[in-house]
Amino acid sequence: MTSYDLLLRNGRLLHRNGTIAPVDIAVQGGAIAEISPHIPALAQQELDLQGQLVSPPFVESHIHLDSALTAGQPRWNQSGTLFEGIEIWRERKQNLSLEDVKSRALETLKQQAMQGVLFVRSHVDVSEAKLVALQALLEVREAVKNWMTLQIVAFPQDGIYGGDKNESLMEEAIARGVDVIGGIPHYELTREDGVKSVHRIFEWAEQHDRLIDIHCDEIDDDHSRFLEVMTACALRTDLGSRVTASHTTAFGSYNNAYAYKLLGFLQRTQINFVCNPLINITLQGRTDTYPKRRGLTRVKELWQQGMNVSLGHDCILDPWYSLGTGNMLDVAAMLVHVGQMTGSAEIDACYNMVTWQGAKTLHLEEQYGIAVGKPANLIVLDASDRFDALRRRAPVRYVVSRGKVLASTEVPSPQWYGEQP
Ligand code: 17E
Ligand code: FE2
């Protein structure tokens, strides 16, 4: 009889369209060897999943690992704004060491993995003269590669043209092997510099064959219109699906006539959007009195138009957000509320934004998903379906990475001692 490395019995396999099928899954040599309702084989390790839900892993489309776990250092963000966060981080980043960044990033990645995240795109600030954070994250990417896929974005927090050396620091970061080129056009000193920065990023991406992920229009200013510049560059270069617009919160403040036109242009591209609902519901609207706006991009409309939207935590305990756990179901649940995505198909869509749609943003292509021949990366949720997983922030019972059980969590079992209701 065939003997496998690992056999998962009695799972219920979740498909992208929401259908669920009873399965056994066999793993051999780090890859999925067989999926069928019953596999009559032996294995070195067998797990009885007792009908729990088997899903592809969560994808964290947007986080800043270099600043994670620094909340309060050197001080708390009192105004709660993006801009005070940038000031605090500017102070903190003067005394980064390799060890400091690496230990915080590794701890964060471990927390994420234990909650079912096996693919992470992290921005790293490269507007710091010694590029300590960049070096640390490049080393971390290598150190975790047997259990976590980490993509690194060169992110010029202080603007590509905001300081004399910043442009050459970006070039140095590209030479050292970042996966993705970032930017922050709304924080460049002038609108012209912002436009120029977007063009520069597209040139670099073409020249060095990298993906693009730009912090774009992360402000409540309805005149912040760099998404249209990204759209034009995507149309003219044909890089569309390799491009991500992160945050785009100003899109939530544009007048409807302009937003309608822009949505039409966007549909001709295949740009990916990343929304960070936990962070932008707290950072945005800070200069409003009442009514106070929600600071999110138009997720529902983008999704309705068939654009690819995925989600990020953005921050875990840092100068911009003093909370956060790494749990992607928290992120999806916040979007359900703030984006008013409360219809049943909308709630299911929010689950897909932290799984399959994240994989699309990160260009994971063939390596993502549960099918014979693919790397055996999957999670087992104590949930009946997507809706149930999201509603209860279901615990991740098992995390399987590259064919090995990487982590497990006991499901809480509360006891009732009161009268029978
Ligand atoms: N930097 C930035 O420009 N925007 C953010 N949301 C964070 C850092 C977290
Ligand atoms: Fe960000």
Short description:
This protein is α/β, with parallel strands linked by helices.
Bound molecules: 5-methylcytosine, fe (ii) ion
Annotation, overall tally of beta strands: 16
Give the name of the CATH architecture of the largest domain: Alpha-Beta Barrel
Quick one: CATH superfamily of the largest domain? Metal-dependent hydrolases
Explain what the structure shows.
The chain is α/β, with parallel strands linked by helices. It has helices at about 80-90, 100-115, 130-145, 165-175, 190-210, 225-235, 255-265, 275-285, 300-305, 330-340, 345-355, 355-360, 385-390; strands spanning about 5-15, 20-30, 30-35, 40-50, 55, 60-65, 115-125, 150-155, 180, 210-215, 245, 270-275, 310, 380, 395-400, 405-410. Helix 2 crosses helix 3 (about 130-145) and helix 5 (about 190-210) packs parallel to helix 6. It is globular and about 65 Å long. The longest helix is centred in the middle third of the chain and has 18 residues, at about 190-210. It contains 13 helices and 16 strands. It is about 35% helix and about 25% strand. Strands 1, 2, 3, 4, 5, 14, 15 and 16 form an eight-stranded mixed beta sheet that branches. It folds into two domains: about 5-55 and about 370-410, Urease, subunit C, domain 1, CATH 2.30.40; about 60-365, Alpha-Beta Barrel (TIM Barrel). Fe (ii) ion binds near residues 62 and 215. Fe (ii) ion (FE2) binds near residues 62, 64, 123, 215 and 246.
